Amino acid sequence: MSEVVAEAVAQLNAKIGDAGFDGTAKFTIEDEGSIIIDADGARAGDEDADVTLTATTEVFKAILDGEMNPTTAFMTNKLSVDGDMGQAMKLSGVLS
């Protein structure tokens, strides 16, 4: 697991807390790896999910650090979404 993915998993678990996430989402960080988010929290993984979000390391870090809104990243083509848009919107609420 890359250092970027390990750090992102820790940040995501802190944001999600004990609530987990209703559904499954996958973040694919270009050239680094993938993270799965589900009812158990966040972990490194590459299994199928309801929605897959793909971004560069820089964009992903900016979203996690609160420097970039996930919706803005999507609207400006810095974040791609494949799958259930409703799950993507729920995840956006968790990240904010």
Features:
five-stranded mixed β-sheet; 4 helices; 5 strands; 41% helix; globular
For the biggest sheet, the summary is: 5 strands, mixed
Q: Fraction of residues in helices?
A: 40-55%
Morphology call: globular
Structural class of the helix and strand makeup? alpha+beta
Strand content: 25-35%
The number of strands is 5
Low-confidence stretches: none
N-end to C-end Cα span? 25 Å
Strand order of the largest sheet: 3-2-1-4-5
Count of alpha and pi helical runs = 4
Oligomer: single chain
Rg over C-alpha atoms, rounded to the nearest angstrom: 12 Å
**What is the chain-wise order of helices and strands?**
HEEEEHHEH
Mean pLDDT: 90
Please characterize this protein's 3D structure.
This protein has a 5-stranded mixed sheet with strand order 3-2-1-4-5. It is globular. With 96 residues, it is an alpha+beta fold. The chain has 4 helices and 5 strands.
Topology:
Blueprint lengths: L2 H14 L8 E5 L3 E6 L2 E4 L6 E5 L1 H8 L5 H6 L3 E5 L1 H11 L1
Parallel strand pairs: 1-4
Antiparallel strand pairs: 1-2, 2-3, 4-5
Can I get a quick summary?
The chain is 41% helix and 26% strand.
